[in-house]
Amino acid sequence: MSSWLIVFCYCFIAYGACNVIAYGSGPFKIFERLRGFTMGINEHLGSLFGCMMCLPANFGWICSLVNYFFVPIAFTPFNIIFAGMPHTWWMILLLILCDGAFTTGVVWLIHNVELFFENLGGGGVSNNIENEDEIIEIHE
Fold it and tell me: Chain centroid to CA 117: how far?
């Protein structure tokens, strides 16, 4: 399989997983409970699971660790790029950090493109205006 296709699939799998964890309830409301539990421990820890910039960074470095140490086939972008090269401890750390940065950037980009297209139709204003006075106020 082509490396570009693997990276493409990785990007959308990362976006989907992070979107479900950050906004979804999951089976038996497991993600809601996880966000509530971590928010109860510490506000900053709780925001880690609700932020579409924080969560993908952690998702990326965790996937990179799992890919480097446990999965024989490279599926994260920087493990693909540097496959076959001799790895020192600082090279492994750099791979893991770069995968985290790449994942957060791609997921944040996809998330913002989705938000842009959601708000494109009405410019962020509800299309269900019932009163003509509201239409005049909006256009003034």
Answer: 18
Can you read off the two tokens belonging to residue 50?
């609700």
CA distances from 68 to 14, 18, 47, 71 (A): 17, 21, 28, 6
Phi and psi at residue 81, in whole multiples of 5°?
Answer: -65, -45
pTM: 0.80
DSSP state, 28? Answer: G
Q: What is the pLDDT of residues 25-84, one digit of tens each?
A: 889 999 999 999 999 998 888 888 888 999 999 999 999 999 999 999 999 999 999 888
d(CA 62, CA 45): 17
- Kindly give the interhelix angle for 3-23 and 54-69, rounded to the nearest 10 degrees: 130
Q: What is d(CA 15, CA 115) in angstroms, rounded to the nearest whole number?
A: 13
Amino acid present at 84: G
Domain of 104?
3-139
Question: For residues 125 and 135, what is the distance between their CA atoms, to the nearest angstrom?
Answer: 11
Buried b (16+ CB within 10 A) or exposed e, 68-81: beeeeebbbbbbbe
Domain count, the chain: 1
